[in-house]
Amino acid sequence: MNTSRILITCAKSIPSFLRQELVELNYPVLSETMAGVETEGTIDDAMRLDLFLRTGHRVLFTLKSFAARDADALYREVKDIPWETFIPADGYVCVTSAVAMPGIRDSRYASLKCKDAVVDRIKERTGRRPDSGPERDRSVVHLFWSDGQATVYLDTSGEPLSRRGYRKIPLTAPMQETLAAAVILATGWSGGGNVVNPMCGSGTLAIEAALIGLERPPGLLRGSFGFMHLPGFNDAVWQAMREDARRLSKKTLSGRIIATDVNPAAVEAAKKNAATAGVDHLIEFSVCDFAETTVPEGGGVVVMNPEYGERMGEVQKLDAVYARIGDFLKQKCAGYRGYVFTGNLDLAKKIGLRTKRRIPFWNSGIECRLLEYELYEGSKQKTRGRGDAETRGE
Length: 394
Ligand SMILES: C[S@@+](CC[C@H](N)C(=O)[O-])C[C@H]1O[C@@H](n2cnc3c(N)ncnc32)[C@H](O)[C@@H]1O
Prior knowledge:
With 394 residues, this protein is α/β, with parallel strands linked by helices.
């Protein structure tokens, strides 16, 4: 297949990490929006991106861009695409859409029009009509239609790439895998030094750190992608790509990854998830209060995602937890860089340490920050004094 534009969608605040990933994989960045980055390549490139990207959600291969003022024009233009070469006549197709068109109040109507055009075309050319529905585990087509301009994509990912396939046991408020990967990338950790992850919950940050440290592509964990349902899908090329990636990834890490949580059920789930991801031998799990977490000599990053009172816990009770996080970072983590991911900046003030950076993120519609603390050895670390804008407020 020819080269085409490839749009990779992602969560808000993630494009800078996604762009960096593309650059490191040697792909050009053609444009960047609030929730996506565009590059170009062939279907094989799309497959490679599905395999390697850690922070992207969907790899969308552009089939056609056109002007369409109404649903009939949309139908005609979509029907003109040679769908019989992209979707098996005995297959199953799901059409998703993002629509901002005057007169189209429900994007499901646009999806339906698009789906009709796809299956009508295949029926006309082959005599058979593929099934269709909401499941994204086979062929997926995405329609973007805004201000009279439409683009139709083949969604080569199918299920979003955040579904790595290892989190069989999610607990309350787990972090999405793609977000956890972006958080680890934001810490700058890439395999040297230790990663300490108290409050690990279902283990997403520790598992993503292990995959990043090993340079093991997250797509190796998945058995199913949208591109596998292309009639011309070349399994030999895909297997060779996977084999190369596996061969080039590291087998061990130089530092330690330590993950703890006070909830035994969380640690149990995290262990199982890590085993499914094939990295359980690299993560030292234990059940304890975060302040009792072992912090090994040698430095590295300490990364914590405490509750922030939006979905779990109560803000008032969390005041004391955040103050104790400050004490833990100051007293036990000298020589490390400390990171706290939170959606509540008032609570963050209770940490009482000077932030070096505040990296913006979004998590389930909530604006969050990854706060970075430089935890100097000896006496350099300053706590905030009374009257300071970010004093603990005690
Ligand atoms: C927001 S969740 C972390 C979610 C995690 N990032 C994930 O992806 O699953 C916060 C976790 O902190 C744990 N926690 C709360 N208080 C704690 C404490 N005092 N010591 C250790 N863990 C604690 C909870 O059990 C919960 O698993």
